[in-house]
Write a structure and sequence with these properties.
- α2 packs antiparallel against α3 and α3 (59-69) packs across α4 (73-82).
- The protein has ten helices and five strands; from the N terminus they run ααααβααββββαααα.
- It has a five-stranded mixed beta sheet with strand order 2-3-1-4-5, covered by helices on one side.
- Among the domains are: 23-82, Orthogonal Bundle (Arc Repressor Mutant, subunit A); 94-169, 3-Layer(aba) Sandwich (Glutaredoxin), CATH 3.40.30.10.
- By secondary structure, the protein is an alpha+beta fold.
Length: 220
């Protein structure tokens, strides 16, 4: 009898499982195709879109992303494992990212992190039992002049002290941005682009020109 070796660290994807990416998510990913010369270049925006929709990027979603971008699933996994922003398992509704740079450490960042662990009852890269918060650290949040600082989702909280943590966690709007998000990420659907193309023979009006390959070539 021959024994079959099984690598239990290797994720198992059920090929007969239902798709995880809705058509709305797929359409949003496709809306980025016109901005780049290859579909492969859309990988990072696609990962952001999927994580925003699902809360994380599970193994099955990686396969679906790879199929949509016409690349190998290992390319998706390589990218996810390089960036700490992406999660392969469920995370809390709000992710708290504490800066651990030298500036923040000098100004008391370690004490803020310890108070967060105490208040939340979790360690780094863990989530609270109610699924409300997850806690991680990053090397630098580019807010050295506001040290110590932390992010709750995309909102930067400046000069945080340990005694501020309880009040910060109790604030239901602690992740709400005061400025609108960039239209470069929240691209319109392909149908909107198609309408703009028919109207003026250019999709620039619909998707903007900041990431337009043609414009960058002309500027060279």
């Amino acid at each position: 009898m021959a024994w079959v070796a099984i690598n239990r660290n290797e994720p198992v994807v059920d090929p007969k499982g239902p798709p995880l990416l809705t058509e709305v998510v797929r359409e949003k990913i496709r809306s980025f195709f016109g901005r780049y010369e290859t579909k492969r270049a859309v990988l990072l925006p696609a990962l952001h879109i999927v994580q925003d929709a699902l809360g994380h990027v599970p193994w099955h979603a990686m396969v679906e992303i790879a199929d949509l971008l016409e690349i190998h699933p290992s390319d998706v996994m390589d990218t996810i494992s390089f960036y700490t922003h992406f999660w392969t398992h469920p995370k809390g509704k709000k992710v708290i990212t504490v800066c651990r740079s030298v500036s923040c450490e000098i100004m008391g960042g370690a004490a803020v992190l310890e108070e967060l662990k105490k208040q939340l009852g979790i360690e780094e890269h863990e989530s609270t039992k109610d699924g409300k918060y997850s806690l991680v650290t990053e090397e630098c949040l580019a807010g050295c002049d506001h040290a110590p600082c932390l992010l709750i989702h995309e909102r930067l909280h400046k000069r945080v002290k340990p005694q501020d943590v309880a009040k910060l966690l109790a604030d239901t709007d602690n992740d709400r941005l005061s400025v609108p998000r960039s239209d470069l990420f929240d691209a319109p659907a392909a149908s909107t682009i198609a309408k703009a193309t028919r109207a003026d023979d250019s999709a620039d009006a619909a998707i903007g020109t900041t990431s337009d390959v043609r414009e960058m070539r002309e500027a060279d």
